[in-house]
Amino acid sequence: MKIPGDIRVVRYVAHPDGAELRKCFSLSQMRVPEVDQGEVLVRPIYLRMDPYQRIRMRPESDFEGGPIRGGPLRLGEVEPGRGSGVIVQSGHPSFSPGDHVSGEMHWAELTAVPAAALEKLPPLRGSLRLSQSILGGPGLTAYFALHETARALAGETVVVTGAAGGVGALAIQMAKAMGCRVVGIAGGEEKCRFIMENLGADAAIDHRAGEIEAALARACPDGIDVFLDGVGGALHDAAIPLMRVRGRVVVLGAIDRYDAGNGIDLGPRNLYLIAINRLRIQGFLVGDHVADYPAALSEIRQAIDRGQLHAVDTVREGLNEAPAVFEGLFRGAAIGKLLLQVHPDPEEQPEAA
Amino acid sequence: MKIPGDIRVVRYVAHPDGAELRKCFSLSQMRVPEVDQGEVLVRPIYLRMDPYQRIRMRPESDFEGGPIRGGPLRLGEVEPGRGSGVIVQSGHPSFSPGDHVSGEMHWAELTAVPAAALEKLPPLRGSLRLSQSILGGPGLTAYFALHETARALAGETVVVTGAAGGVGALAIQMAKAMGCRVVGIAGGEEKCRFIMENLGADAAIDHRAGEIEAALARACPDGIDVFLDGVGGALHDAAIPLMRVRGRVVVLGAIDRYDAGNGIDLGPRNLYLIAINRLRIQGFLVGDHVADYPAALSEIRQAIDRGQLHAVDTVREGLNEAPAVFEGLFRGAAIGKLLLQVHPDPEEQPEAA
User: Fold this and answer.
1) Contact criterion met (CB < 8 Å) for A257 and B241
2) Quick check: B280 contacting A, CB < 8 Å?
3) CA of B84, closest CA in chain A: separation in Å?
4) HEC letters along A64-80
5) Of A241, B77, B79, B201, which one has the greatest count of Cβ atoms within 10 A?
6) What residues does A78 pair with on adjacent strands?
7) pLDDT tens track for A59-87
8) Which of A125-129, A248-252, A254-258 has the lowest mean pLDDT?
9) In this structure, are residues A222 and A244 in contact, taking their beta carbons and an 8 Å threshold?
10) What percent helix, strand, coil does chain B show, rounded to 5?
11) What DSSP designation does A235 have?
12) Buried b (16+ CB within 10 A) or exposed e, A319-351
C-alpha cells in the first residue's frame, strides 16, 4: 500500500458543554507520523465507540475519584480509541505489514502506536469486525460478568440494562443460553422489540415509557437474582428493591452519570436493603480477567457455531462522521456495539470468482 | 425460685413519631404466662438493645423492601428482644431450671419462649453478660465481617463506622489484632478518645465535628481497603471516594435510615467509582455464618485470654428504664454494646467465702 504524505485525523479540541459532544472534536490534517522502533503504523478499519471515552473528556480536576485508563484527554490531541485495523509499516518483529490487529489506536486514517497496544487477530474471515464486539471487549465483558462475577444459575432471573447496547445485546443472549429467565431494559419500542424477537429475551421494558418500577416488578414476579447494570440512575433504583436475598449486582459502568458534573454522586444509599438481603454489588472491569480471555473466546466461538449467540453491531461509515456517531452513542442511536468504519473491510471484499 | 402471679412487661403501643422512641412503649402488668409443651419460662437477666428492633417498629406498609426477621411489630404485643437469662420452668427436655441461656426473649420480668429460640450458655463466670456482646452476635458480626466477608489483610487500612458501638468497638480491636491500620468514626470527643486510648485505633474521627471527608482523607493517606459500615448516609458517602482499587465495603446495617420513612432510599448511586475501582459492596447478616460460630467463638475466647480483645458494653438497670434506654441507643448514648439489666446477674454475686 502506498502511504500518503498527509492524513486526516479527529482531534479533541474542547471539553463538553451539554449533550452536543460533536462540538468537542475537529477534523484536521497532519503529516503521516514517523514509526519509531517498537511502533507500528496501522490503518484502522473499525473504531469502537465506547462509553468510557466520555469519562476521559472530563477536565483533569474532575478525576479525583479514581484512576481512568489513560487519564484525562489533553485539548488538541488526536482522539484515542480502540479498534481493529491492518498493519501498514512495522518497527517491531512481532508484526508485519498486512497483519490484522486489534487494540488501542486513534481516530485517524493512519496511526502510529506501540506494538504492545495491539494484538494480532486470527486469520478468520470477519475477525476485524467481530473482534470489536462479540469476540472482543463487549463479548468478554458479558461473559465474565455473567459466568464469573454474578455466577448466574439456570432458572434465575437476570435483568440487563442497556439491553440493546454493545454489551447488553450479548449478555441477553448468553444469559438465555445459560438457562436463565432474562429481562432487558432499553430505550424505545424498536429496541424492546429487537430484544424480544432477535435476542430471545423473556421480557423487555422500555424505560422511556415511564413507570419503570411497576413494569420491572411485573416482569420479575419472583424478584431479581442477577442485575447487570451499565447505566445506573433510575434504572438501578428500580431494580434494587426487587433483588432477592443473596442477589448479585454487577456494576459495568454508570453511563447515566458520565456527563453529570464529575460523575461522582452521593451514595450508595440503599444500604438497608443491601444489608438485610445480603446483596453483593460488585464493580467490574473486564481487564481483570485477561488471563482467561482465550478460554472465554473459545467458548463464545463455539456458542456462535451452535447458533446460540450472534454478533450485534451497528456500523457507520467515514472518519468525518466520527464526532456525530460518538454523540449518537449517548443518545441510544444504535443497536448493538456501535462501530465507525474508517476504511473498507478487506475481509468483506467480494472474493475473486 | 418462687414464681409470682403477676409480672411487669413492656408493650409496644404506638408507632414512632419522631425521635422520642420511649413514647412507643408502655409498662404494664400481666399474669405469668403458661408454659406449653416445648416452651420454657425464662427470667431475663440482660436484654440487648439492638438497632434492628427499630426496623420492626415500622408500619407493615413499609416492609415492602425485604424480609425482616419476625416482621413488623403488632401494636399491643410485648416487645420482643434478644438477651440472656435463667430457666425458671421447662417444658422441654433439653432445658432444666437453673440453666443459663441466650436467645430470643421479651422485655419482661419473666417470659415464655419456644425452646428452639434459645441456646444453653457454657457454665463460665460472666457468660450471661459476655454472650450479649463479645461472645455473641456483636462479636460474631465483627469477626465474620472482617475475616470472611472483607478478608482484611495485615497492613491494610480498615475504617469502621459506629466505632464505639456494640459491633464497632469489637471490630476496631479485631482489626488491630489482624495487623491492620484502623480508623474509627464515632460521634463526640469522648468516644474518639475511648477508641484511641482503650481500643488501640490508629486514628479516630468525630463525625459531629464536621468536615468528615477531609478528616477521613487525612486519616487514610493511602486510601481505604476495607470499610465496615453499619451507619450509612454521610459517612458512607465520605468513604466511597477514598476506597482503593478492589476495596471491600461490608454493609452491616444502615442505622442512619432506620427512622427515615420506609428506610428505602434511592441508590446506590456511586456506581461510577464502584465500577472503575472494582469495589465490592456486600450486605451482611451474621446468621449466614451460624455453622462457623463454634470455631469463631473459640478464636475470640483465645484472643480474650491473650489480652488482645476485651468486651465493651454499657449496662443500664431496671425494666422500667427499657424505653428510655432503647431511645438512647439511637442518640449514641452508650459506649460498646448497650444492655438493659432486668434482674441481678447471678454470675456476678459475691461468691461465698
Assistant:
1) no
2) yes
3) 24
4) CCCCCCCCCCCCCCECE
5) B201
6) A11
7) 765 554 455 566 789 999 999 999 999 99
8) A254-258
9) yes
10) 35, 25, 40
11) H
12) bebbbbbbbbbbebebbbbbbbbbbebebeeee
Residues sharing a CB contact under 8 Å with residue A119, sequence separation 6 or more, in sequence order: A101, A102, A103
Give the three-state DSSP class for B273: helix
- pLDDT at res. A349: 73
Q: Which residues contact A197 (CB under 8 A, 6 or more apart)?
A: none
> How many Cβ pairs within 8 Å bridge chains A and B?
174
Of A251, A269, A270, the CB nearest to B274: A251
Asked if pLDDT for residue A286 goes beyond 60, the answer is: yes
> From A246, which residue of chain B is nearest by alpha-carbon distance?
B283
Query: Phi, psi at residue B127, to the nearest 5°?
Result: -60, -40
Specify the pLDDT at position A52.
83
Q: What is the pLDDT of residue A277?
A: 67
What is the distance between the alpha carbons of residues B243 and B229, in angstroms, rounded to a whole number? Answer: 13
Of the candidates B237, B245, B272, the beta carbon closest to that of A254 is on B272
Q: Is the pLDDT of residue A275 over 90?
A: no
CA–CA gap between residue A43 and residue A89 (Å, rounded): 9
Contact A240 B284 (CB under 8 A): no
Q: How many Cβ atoms from other residues are within 10 Å of residue B242's Cβ?
A: 21
For residue A254, the chain B residue with the least C-alpha distance is B272
Residues forming beta bridges with residue B182, ordered by sequence position: B158
A263:B272 CB<8 A: yes
CB A272 within 8 A of CB B275: no
- Nearest Cβ partner of B270 from A264, A275, A288? A264
Cβ atoms A22, A327 nearer than 8 A: yes
CA dihedral B55, B57, B60, B62 (to 10 degrees): -50
Chain B environment of A65 (Cβ under 8 Å): 241, 272-273, 276
pLDDT recorded at residue B210:
85
Number of other residues whose CB lies within 10 A of the CB of residue B114: 14
* Contact yes or no for A270 and B264 at CB 8 A: yes
Tens of pLDDT, residue by residue over A133-144, are 999 999 999 999
Q: Are B54 and B68 contacting, i.e. CB atoms less than 8 angstroms apart?
A: no
pTM (2 decimals)?
0.82
Highest mean pLDDT: which of A83-92, A119-128, A284-293? A83-92
Q: Does any CB of chain A come closer than 8 Å to the CB of residue B236? A: yes
Q: pLDDT tens digit string along B109-146?
A: 999 999 999 999 988 889 999 999 999 999 999 999 99
Rounded (10°) angle between helices A168-177 and A137-144: 40
Strand runs labelled E in chain A = 6-12, 25-31, 39-48, 80-90, 100-106, 111-114, 118-120, 157-160, 181-186, 203-206, 224-229, 243-251, 280-283, 313-317, 337-341
Strands (E), B67-209: 80-90, 100-106, 111-114, 118-120, 157-161, 181-186, 203-206
Q: Pick B257's closest partner by Cβ from A241, A245, A272.
A: A272
pLDDT higher than 80, residue A315: yes
When mean pLDDT is compared across A42-46, B24-28, B46-50, B285-289, the lowest value belongs to B285-289
Determine whether the interchain pair B278/A274 forms a contact, defined as Cβ–Cβ distance below 8 Å. no
Buried (b) or exposed (e) across B196-233, using 16+ Cβ within 10 A?
eebbebbbbbbbeeeebeebbeebbeebbbbbbbbbbb
Residues from chain B that touch A238, judged by Cβ atoms under 8 A, are none
